[in-house]
Amino acid sequence: MILLAKIELKNISKTYDNRDETTIENFNLSIDEKEFIVLVGPSGCGKSTTLRMIAGLEEITSGELWMNGEKVNTVASKDRNISMVFQNYALFPHLSVAENISFGLKVRKFKKQEIEKLVKETATVVGLEDLLKKKPKELSGGQKQRVALARAIVKQTDIFLMDEPLSNLDAKLRTQMREEIIQLHRKLQTTTIYVTHDQVEAMTMATRIVILKDGDIQQVGTPYEVFRFPQSKFVAGFIGTPAMNFLPVSYQNKMLYLKGVSLLAEELILPFEKTEWTLGIRPEDIHVNNEQGLPATIEYMELLGSELLLHLHHESYSFLAKVHHSHSYQEGQQVYLQFPEENFYLFDKESDKTWYSKGAFLHEEK
């Protein structure tokens, strides 16, 4: 029977002897039972290193790792009751699907009858019941990934750790496997920590997302929270496809200006003395029209099914707007852009901290 697992990382740091910088520093995170936590961020941000420390594959330099009320810093990986799914599947090429799935059970001295029962049950869960006699070379990428998942599931551990398990699959198969992993989590309710650099995976799979940059946590929240209420320019730019537009603006006479051109249709009252800001607005939140606003020229367009992505420029500034495909535009056409108050964010130009979020002030006067 799978136990419910709670994980706590307290001031975890990781330093390598051959590097001057600290890879992870003062990492604090509490993971509740049954959660599907996704660690996401650009390459080199420390997400895989964090996962490997939880797995016991990397030594923790300082700090404490707790699982179900027990400090496990010095507990061997094999004794942490975890299962890990890797990016490269890590299947034994000379073993059948059934033998790959059962390998960990044999190492742990399970009885033959019990192994056969568990393998059959697990293969059914992941849709491999007709492939148990095949070798890995006879399988597709998606089938190999299912074998790797089955090998993790069959061990009936407290925790699943997944390190970019879908990165070797094509786009269509990634979407399918995302859905299958989500369904597995709903069925098994096992505490899961999933690492990816793909923010679409993070947004569609996570109960909570942990966004990392240079070994530091930038924000922790539900997919809705990190998308709707980003706490910094980095988070705002990292979450969302296409990425948020950023423009340097000045606040004067209750209006926002880009190089002397007003971006607002109505006055904006900011309770801050600061005049220089970075304005952020998502492509889908810009209002494109033929009459009023910031003049911009359409450089080129991308048809995205029901949506049209406009690549625009105004003097030296380039940005994106997303509109419905039924709108008729042409390359080289001049249009006008409006930035509704309820649609944009303002970030401090020095700290990149979010101060104004879609009509709401996040801080007191500076």
Automatic annotation (TrEMBL):
Listed GO MF terms: ATP binding
Domain of life: Bacteria
Keywords annotated in UniProt: ATP-binding, Nucleotide-binding, Sugar transport, Translocase, Transport
Residues of the ABC transporter domain: 7-239
InterPro entries per UniProt: AAA+_ATPase, ABC_transporter-like_ATP-bd, ABC_transporter-like_CS, ABC_transpr_MalK-like, ABC_transpr_MalK/UgpC-like, Mo/tungstate-bd_C_term_dom, NA-bd_OB-fold, P-loop_NTPase
UniProt KW ATP-binding keyword: yes
PANTHER family: MALTODEXTRIN IMPORT ATP-BINDING PROTEIN MSMX (PTHR43875), OSMOPROTECTIVE COMPOUNDS UPTAKE ATP-BINDING PROTEIN GGTA (PTHR43875:SF1)
Protein name: Multiple sugar transport system ATP-binding protein
Species annotation: Candidatus Enterococcus lemimoniae
